[in-house]
C-alpha cells in the first residue's frame, strides 16, 4: 500500500530567471528539508538544497556505469558509423587515447554480437595523414553492394580546415574488421565552393540512392551564413560532386552538426535500408545537432527536386522536435539488417567538472541503443531501448492495482536502486481536473519543469518516480508527468528534475522537460520506463514519445550508501497504477574483454 503524507508546502522562492542547462543557485532550505522522515521531507521542500561542504571523492568508480557503452578509460564523444556487418555489431566513436579530456581525437572501435556486451579493439582510424592530422572526427559507414563497408569521416588538416575522407577495411574476412585503409585520393571533399565556411563542414551521413540511381550523402555545413545539410552525389562512392542546392537549409546561423537522414513508414516499427528502394508512403526524418540538443523534422524526400521537404516549416528552432530532451547529443542511427529495425545511439556528456573527469580517468558514454520508428500519425519519432538490454534483467518484482492519492509515496523495494529497470503504467481516474494548457510553455518546457516542480501540486500530477533517493531525501531525482487540457487535446509534460539529485558542489543540476500530445479520453494510461545505471538515467514517457537522458552524481552513490525508488502522486486527482514492474540490472561486459591491450 502507498504511504500517505500530509502536505505542508513551503512557498517556493521566486526565481528571477531560469537557465535550463546551467547549474541553479543552491538555495538554503528550512530544517524540514532533509531532516526527520525522509519520504515526508520530499514533499515539504520546493527549493533546491544547499551543497554540502564535504565532497566525496569524484575519482570513485561508483559513478562508472554498469551497462552503458563507454571505453575503459579516457574521453569519448560522438558515435561514429555504427553498423551491423556479417553477424557483428560495430560501434565506432570519437576517442582520446591520451586522457579524459577532449583532444587528439581518433576513431575508437568496439564489437558485439548482442548490443549489450562489447569487446574493445584498437582504433580504426588515427591521425596520420595531412587531411586528418588535426583529428579523425565524426562520420558514417555505408555498406556498398556486394557487402563492402566504407567509412566516410571528417578530418582536420594542419590549418584546421575540415575535409571529408574515406577508408575501407583492409581485410573483409576479418570478422572484427580491425584494420582500415584510407583512400589514396583523400580528401574526397573540400569546402572550396563559394559561400562555404572552411571550419564548419563536417559529419557526413550514411549514403543513400538518389533519383538518378547514384549515391547521395549530406554533410553538415554553413552556406552563406545559414545552417545547411549540404548535398553531394557520386557514382562510385569515391569521387563526389556537390549538388547545386542543399538537401535542406534554414536561415539560422548555428551550424548543423551530425546530420542524420533516414526513411520510415508511419506506424511500422521496422526500419528501412536507405541503400534499397524506399516503399511508397514512407516519410523521411532529417536530424541535426544544434543548440546543444538533437532536433529533427519529419517530411518527404522529393525525388523531383532531390531535396527534403518538411511537412511543417517552423521558423522558431525552440519548437522543433527533439530526439531527447536531456543530456544527449550527436546521435547516429543505422539500419540493423539482422532484425529489420533502425537503431540510434547518442552521446551523453559528463555534467560534473573537468577536474572530476581527470580524477575519474574517464568522461562520456553512449546511451542505451534504441529502436527508433515513426508514429502512426506520421508526426513524430518514437524510441524504445533495444530488446537485448532486457537480458540483464534479474530479480523481477511486480505490483498491480495500486492507488496513489495526493501525497502518496509507494516504495519499490527488493531491487538494486543504483542499477534498475522500472516500468510503470499510470491510469487516470478522472481527467476533469486537468489544468488549462498555455502554448507559450512549448518554447521552454525546462523552465516550466523548474517552476512547477514535483512538490507543487497540480490538478492532474505531478505523478511519477522518485529515484536515487537517500534515506532522508537529502538527495533524489524526480521523473514525473503533469497533464494539461488544451482546446482540442491533452498535453502531457514530462520532467526529469535533477535540482536535488546530489549534495555535491560543482555539478549541473537542471530540470529537463518536454511535452507530448496524448489522447487521454481514449487511452487513459500513460507509461513510464526508467533505466537507472549509476550516474546515467534514461526515461521514456508515453511509449517513447518523450525521452530524457540525465547524468546524476549523488553523494550517496559515491559513499556506497543505500538508495530508494518510489512511485508518487502529488496531484489533486487520484492516479491508479494497474501495473508496476521492476528489475535489478546485472553488469554487462563492456570493453573489459580487450581485443587490444591498450584500451
From TrEMBL:
Record key words, sorted: Disulfide bond, Glycoprotein, Glycosidase, Hydrolase, Signal
Record keyword Glycoprotein present: yes
Enzyme's top EC category: hydrolase
Assigned protein family: Belongs to the glycosyl hydrolase 32 family.
Domain Glycosyl hydrolase family 32 C-terminal: 388-583
GO annotation, biological process: carbohydrate metabolic process
Protein name: Fructan 1-exohydrolase
Catalytic activity, as annotated: Hydrolysis of terminal, non-reducing (2->1)-linked beta-D-fructofuranose residues in fructans
Organism lineage: Eukaryota, Viridiplantae, Streptophyta, Embryophyta, Tracheophyta
Signal sequence interval, chain numbering: 1-16
Gene Ontology molecular function: any one: fructan beta-(2,1)-fructosidase activity
Pfam families: Glyco_hydro_32C, Glyco_hydro_32N
Origin species: Hordeum vulgare subsp. vulgare
Enzyme Commission number(s) of this protein: 3.2.1.153
Role played: Hydrolyzes inulin-type beta-(2,1)-fructans. May play a role as a beta-(2,1)-trimmer during graminan biosynthesis.
Domain Glycosyl hydrolase family 32 N-terminal: from-to ranges: 68-385
Domain of life assignment: Eukaryota
SMART domains the record matches: Glyco_32
Database matches in InterPro entries: ConA-like_dom_sf, Fructan_Metab_Enzymes, Glyco_hydro_32, Glyco_hydro_32_C, Glyco_hydro_32_N, Glyco_hydro_beta-prop_sf
Keyword Glycoprotein: yes
